[in-house]
Amino acid sequence: MRIKRRRTLKAVIPTASMSDIAFLLIIFFMTVTVFRKAKGLPVQLPYAKTTERILKQRDLAYIWISKDGKVSVDDNIVSPKKVALIFRTKVSENPALITSIKADKNVPYKYVHEVMEALREANALRVLFSARRGG
Amino acid sequence: MAIFKKVRLEEEAEIPTASMADIAFLLIIFFMTTTNFARERGLKFVLPEKKDQPQEVKIKSENLLKISINDKGELFLNDEEARWENLEREVKLRLEKNPNLIIIIRTHGDAPYDYMIRAFDAVKAAGGKKVSLGIIGGGG
User: Fold this and answer.
1) Phi and psi dihedrals of B36, rounded to 5?
2) CA B37 to CA A32: how far, in whole Å?
3) Measured between alpha carbons, how far is B58 from B19 in angstroms, rounded to an integer?
4) Could you tell me if A49 and B125 are in contact, meaning their C-beta atoms sit under 8 angstroms apart?
5) In this complex, do A109 and B112 lie within 8 Å of one another by their Cβ atoms?
6) Which residues on chain B are in Cβ contact (under 8 Å) with A129?
7) DSSP tag of B105
8) How do residues A41-62 score in pLDDT, each as one tens digit?
């Protein structure tokens, strides 16, 4: 009778494809990453029920309007006239631009109106009144 | 000289790949922490074009619904005082009667922006598509 030699089995986790998975994840995150470009102003966004989601992050440009009526574009405090100038170049670079107006909910409406007029001047007609979802 | 030749071994060119996964994971963690996903939400609106010579379009008053908000945040529907809670229902009712209704939201310059958003939101919720935004007092 042959005596079978007992082989000891070694538990092995295949790690050869680990780096492949890792690189896949890297590429995923690299492509979806959008670095924060501007900090903006501290604003309390209004709430709305019928908000829509904008998926094309690259088409978005932001304007912040703080409670005291300060307007910020790309982290610079600007006047409405300057807003028209800045957005004219932005629109010429990307005609599908959507301007997200992040205005504080307590800001007097005239400041928002001024900005909207400036955007009309710049032909940046697609806007988004940034709001949070809720009643 | 002869000794020197003997010592020389053939070397294989090798790239160390053991730490590759570590580098990869480091990069993953970096991108994971710096990623911010599109979280942009809001109310879409298309501004009217600015023309050198403003066109005058005559609209019949029955096709028009004026929503006015004064500086105290009080609401008026076609110059009649209305309540905020009823706005959506009211707009919906009027839209059912006349689907061609054009809605103008006029906000006083000193009224908080929130009221305009509330009115615009209510109009959107009621299904109003033709919306115009205006200002009362303070230019325009």
Assistant:
1) -125, 120
2) 7
3) 73
4) yes
5) yes
6) 42-43, 45, 117, 120
7) E
8) 888 889 998 888 887 778 888 8
Yes or no: say if B116 and B32 are a contact pair by the CB < 8 Å rule: no
Residue A72, φ and ψ in degrees, nearest 5? -125, 130
CA distances from A36 to A31, A44, A71, B35, B59 (A): 14, 19, 19, 9, 45
Task: State ipTM.
Answer: 0.71
Strands of B131-136's sheet, edge to edge?
B80-82, B75-77, B64-69, B102-108, B131-136
A31 and B CB contact within 8 Å: no
**Does residue A81 have a pLDDT over 70?**
yes
Backbone φ and ψ of A55, nearest 5°: -90, -30
CB contact under 8 A, B36 and A36: yes
Of 1.10.150.130, 2.120.10.30, 3.30.420.270, 3.40.50.20, the CATH number of B61-136 is 3.30.420.270
Domain boundaries, chain B: 61-136
Helices B87-97 & B113-126 angle (0-180, nearest 10): 40
Residues 60-79 on B with a CB inside 8 Å of A are none
